[in-house]
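User: Second chain of the day. Same drill as before.
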Amino acid sequence: MTTTEQPVGVLLRQWRERRRLSQLDLASRTEVSARHVSFLETGRSRPTKAMLLRLSEQLEIPLRERNSLLLAGGFAPAYPQHTLHDVPMAAVSDAIGMILAAHSPYPAVVVDRHWNMVDGNDGVALFTVGCSAQLLEPPVNVLRLSLHPDGMASRITNLGQWRAHILDRLAHQIAASGDPELVALQRELSEYPGDDADRVHDTRSLVVPLKFEGDLSFFSTTTVFGTPLDVTLSELAIEAFYPADAATATAIRSLRNGQT
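Assistant: Same format as last time:
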């Protein structure tokens, strides 16, 4: 993550280095000379708005940070940012509601770029039973809730494996974004107790499962919106959990029907 307090050339260089590209690599992708890229980074040349947008596209810079880059270059942001309650987001909000409802009784949550829960369906209650009230106060961070000793951790039977999966996923996200808030979250989660001896994945499983007390086992999928042009929309993801075996599917249906 970057701020507009830094020169636009410095920000460009930081993003290029984060993507592990040379100036020649970026120049080739953007169809300009390596010398021009060098001049932009050192401040000898001032980029146009169109050039900043071209470079941002090739560097796969998140929309929020593209706006910051434009501001640093002296231009207005190119991408709007709405809440789900704003009129332009009505269709998106309705679609999210339909996805969450259709996924019930299995848990599904909508999270932002920092893993704070934006919305969720009734199935989420399966995971939050017994969790500390403090952890359930908005904004609920789903990764903290998952690994905190007063959250779901005590009910996850493969905690070491699940903890390693979450920390690895977070590390990849940090490498791509450099977000300091995610760095702080990773540091916090790493300090929570967990059985690191259980980090090895079961080679018989196709995905890393979330194994819950009561012999429940889930796998998760992540859904994002294609070609978003709004900052908020680009940062939303739907995490949906599915039964990893027939016994779990039967147990969840029984719970829904009020059976024991």
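The mean pLDDT is 93.

User: Great, on to the next one.
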